[in-house]
Amino acid sequence: MERKITRELLKDFERNMFEDEKSKATVEKYLRDLHCFVNFVNDRAIDKGLVLEYKAELAHNYALTSANSMLAALNAFLRFVGWLDCTVKQFKIQKKAFCSEEKELSKAEYLSLVRTAENKNNERLSLLIQTICGTGIRVSEVEYITVEAVHRGEAIVSCKGKTRRVFIVSALRKKLLQYTKENRIRSGMIFITKNGKAMNRSNIWAEMKKLCKEAGVSPNKVFPHNLRHLFARTFYGIEKDIAKLADILGHSNINTTRIYIISTGAEHRRKMENMRLII
C-alpha cells in the first residue's frame, strides 16, 4: 500500500499536537515545515529513499540548524502516522565555542533602541522592549504581562506545558503602572494593538525594525528573541548559575540555556589576549 500524506493526516497530526499541549507557535512551525516536505514529495509515495533525498535537499538549501529543525518536524509526523522506517537522523553539528558578533545585541545597542523608541514618542514600543529584556520572557509570552500581573509584581506564564513565575522588577513595574494609568488600561493585557488584540511576533518585529537606522543598530541584531538572549547573558554574568537561569527562562534542557550564554568572538579573543602566554 502506497504511503501518501493527505490533508486528513495533517489535520490529525495538528489535533494531536494541540492535545499534547504544544504551543500554538510550535504547531504552526511544524505544519509549515511539513508543507515544505509535501511540496518536495509532489504526490509521490513516501519511503526512506525519498526522505533521504529531502534531507540532502535541505542540506543544500538551508543552514544545518534550520535543516535539523525541519527534520525534527518531519520525524515527529512520521512517528505519529507509524512510518517509523522512514525516519532519518539529524545532521551532526559541532557546538560553537562563541557566537557571531554580527548577530549579538549589546547592552549599549539595546539602550539605543529604547531611547530611539522614546524619541519617536512610541512609549508602548519602548516599554515592550524593556519588558522583554528586563524579564527574559519569550515574545509569545507578552500576553501574560497584564495589569493584574504588574500589580502583583509577577506574571504566571504558561508555555510548552509548563507554568513558571516571572518577576517584574520594581523599576519596570513603576513604568508599566504609569503607562496603564495614562492609557486607561484597567485590566488584562498591557501590550495590545488598536483592535485590542495581543501584539504578536510579526508586529513587534516590524516595529523594532523601524528603529534600526536612527538607533545605529544593524537590522540583523534587531528581533525580539535577541532581547531574551541579552537578558540571559546579563543574568549569567552576575549569577554564574546556569541551572537557575534555565528555570527563569523556562528551559527543560540546560543545553538550550548554554546556547543563550555563549560569548562573542571578540570577548573570546580578549580573554585569550589576557592570558599573556606569548613571551
Strand and helix map with partners:
Layout: H1 7-19, H2 24-41, H3 48-61, H4 64-81, H5 107-119, H6 123-135, H7 147-152, E1 154-159, E2 162-167, H8 170-182, H9 201-209, H10 212-215, H11 224-239, H12 242-249, H13 254-260, H14 265-275
Antiparallel strand pairs: 1-2
Helix pairs in contact: 2-4, 5-6, 6-8, 6-11, 12-13
Radius of gyration: 22 Å
Beta-strand fraction estimate: under 5%
| Mean of pLDDT | 90
Assembly status: single chain
Q: Biggest sheet, open or closed, and with what strands and sense?
A: 2 strands, antiparallel
Measured between the Cα atoms of the first and last residue, the distance is 72 Å
Indicate the overall shape: globular
Biggest sheet strand order reads 1-2
pLDDT < 50 runs, ≥5 residues: none
Number of distinct helices: 14
What is the succession of H and E elements? HHHHHHHEEHHHHHHH
- The computed structural class is mainly alpha
